[in-house]
Amino acid sequence: MSEILVTGATGKSGRRVVTALRARGVAVRAAARSAEHVFDWTDPSTWDHALEGTRAVYIVQLDGTKLVRPFVARAVRHGVRRLVLASGRGIDNPLYAKDSGGVLDGLVDSEAAVRESGLEWTITRPGWFAQNFSEGFFADAVRAGELRLPAGDGAASFVDAEDIAAVVAAALTEDGHNGEVYELSGPKALTLREAADTISRATGRTVRYVPLTVDQYVAELVAQGLPPADARAFADVIEPLREGRDEHLSDGVQRALGRPPRSFADFAAATTAAGGWPR
């Protein structure tokens, strides 16, 4: 049986998709710049080897680019039959976030390329990852015991990357997901203060949330050595959270898997049990 290609196989969702597929007994081609199969979005010469002999592909795109469209055309030529695209929540809301890096344009073009491919396709649109607190954007701050961010009292319905992977694995291997757009969220919206309190209870360590103004946040990042433009870009990333634009709940996990999504408390407990945070 031909393999399933997983791009971004070392990332938060990609490596979990690889694990989920292998747990199903599926042959997987784990591809990334430093994975079992070398794949580099910026080097199209690596695309053909990754695609050859595959029947389905999980596409984790490179933000700020429009490389998915030529990649999809290459996949069609290789006889791929099914695509699952990792997109983003808020893509259909032009006011969702400031887009200085051209990320939104790339996501829109990628979704269009997949829809127009003539192949079976599924699109996932996850919100903020719960794993941002353990292995991403907020992880170092959590380990230091203090989240200093310009998020105000805004809330987000953080989604567990394990749920994202389960949805992707189902879409790659099962019928019934063709043409579906799965908006993915957790079961409840939490503020950063509530998230910090949940982590504190799970770990037995105090994690505090300290709300900052945007200017205070930018100044702190610049003082740490970040260029002002990059510091401002990080502040822009937080804006949707501060404004509550990601607090709404979505039914994608339920529709795709027939069960509710895992809660943030479930995520925190599992991460603690796995040694993801120091006690």
TrEMBL record:
SUPFAM superfamilies cross-referenced by the UniProt entry: NAD(P)-binding Rossmann-fold domains (SSF51735)
Domain of life: Bacteria
Residues annotated as domain NAD(P)-binding: 8-174
Gene3D superfamilies xrefs: NAD(P)-binding Rossmann-like Domain, UDP-galactose 4-epimerase, domain 1
Stated name of the protein: NAD(P)H-binding protein
Lineage, uppermost ranks: Bacteria, Bacillati, Actinomycetota, Actinomycetes, Pseudonocardiales
